[in-house]
Amino acid sequence: MRPVIPYVTAALLFGLGVYGVLRRRNAVLVLMAVELMLNAVNLVLVTADTTVRAQLPHAGQVFALFVIVLAAAEIGVGLAIVLQLYRLRASVAVDEVPLTEPPTVEPTKAGGAAAEATR
Questions:
Q1: How far is CA 119 from the centre of its chain?
Q2: How does 38-61 read in b/e, with b if 16+ C-beta sit within 10 Å?
Q3: How confident is the model at residue 119 (pLDDT cuts 50, 70, 90)?
Q4: What is the pTM of this model?
Q5: Is the separation of the CB atoms in 37 and 17 below 8 Å?
Q6: 63-80, pLDDT tens digit by residue?
Q7: What Rg, from alpha-carbon coordinates, does the chain have?
Q8: In this structure, are residues 40 and 17 in contact, taking their beta carbons and an 8 Å threshold?
């Protein structure tokens, strides 16, 4: 078997996923682009497993299974974050997500004590 075609396909899928992560503004589309990159890695692992006979049989397929499990967990956590973001901001645009928490101003107790002392 000639492994060139699956490797080129995986490279194109991975490049498309990187473009999607860097270019998209919607968080759901970013998650889909990450899934595309993970599927490209799975294609490389399975192709390498079928073309290169190593000491461990079916090692690439086992690693691909682990990547699938990792992708499922990533989607579960990622969608939970996106849903919480949508509840708070009513938008899932990645550009509008604040990276730092705004400083909170706590009321001073001295002002309250001074107001009570003047009564």
A1: 58
A2: bbbbbbbbbbbbeeeeeeeeeebe
A3: low
A4: 0.70
A5: yes
A6: 888 888 888 898 889 888
A7: 24
A8: yes
pLDDT tens figures, 5-62: 989 999 999 999 999 999 988 888 888 999 999 999 998 888 888 887 766 677 778 8
Token readout for 87 is: 């509840």
All residues at 6 or more sequence positions from 2 whose CB lies less than 8 Å from its CB, including other chains? none
DSSP character string of 77-109? HHHHHHHHHHHHHS--BGGG--SSPPPPPPPPH
Domains in the chain (CATH in brackets) are: 4-99 (1.10.287.3510)
What are the distances in angstroms from CA 93 to CA 31, 34, 35, 58, 84? 12, 16, 18, 41, 13
